[in-house]
Amino acid sequence: MNEADIDPVAALRVRGWQSAYVDIIPQSYLDGMSAENDAQRRREGFASSRGSVVDLVAVDEDGVPVGWICFGPYRGETDAPIPGEVYAVYVEPTLMGRGIGRALLDAVHDHTEAKQFETMQLWVLRDNSRARRFYEAAGYAADGAEESEMYGDVAATELRYRRSMPS
Q1: Percent of the chain whose predicted confidence (pLDDT) is above 70
Q2: Which structural domain, as residue segments, surrounds residue 20?
Q3: What CATH number did the domain enclosing 70 receive?
């Protein structure tokens, strides 16, 4: 990913949220999301995380981003050996199920040896059954850790998934 990708990735991420989290996250929260605000946060994060965080973008035949994944060192407490974390993965909602997300996740797995991650972890909304099936098909499993995030006045439970990486 480069700085020119920030605006389209932010728009992709907002569309992804607004599509994937209907009936999970309050509609008022989803409706209040802004690609412009998200792009500003991406710019700040992009500038400050050089080297530790990796952003990968899948593009279509015209060079337009249709998928994005972000990963780096695990940000929380864990007993996993040398943990990495998938922070986010989003695919253009109209292209879901075409292998873009899997290709991005496979690319992350290809990078784990260079980053020396022995495990990869991620958080997924408990009620997002489609995403949970996607991660389970890629070898991830819930490890029993849970946390809640507030979206407006509604708490949504997230489950931590983990996968050991081949050495």
Answers
A1: 97
A2: 3-164
A3: 3.40.630.30
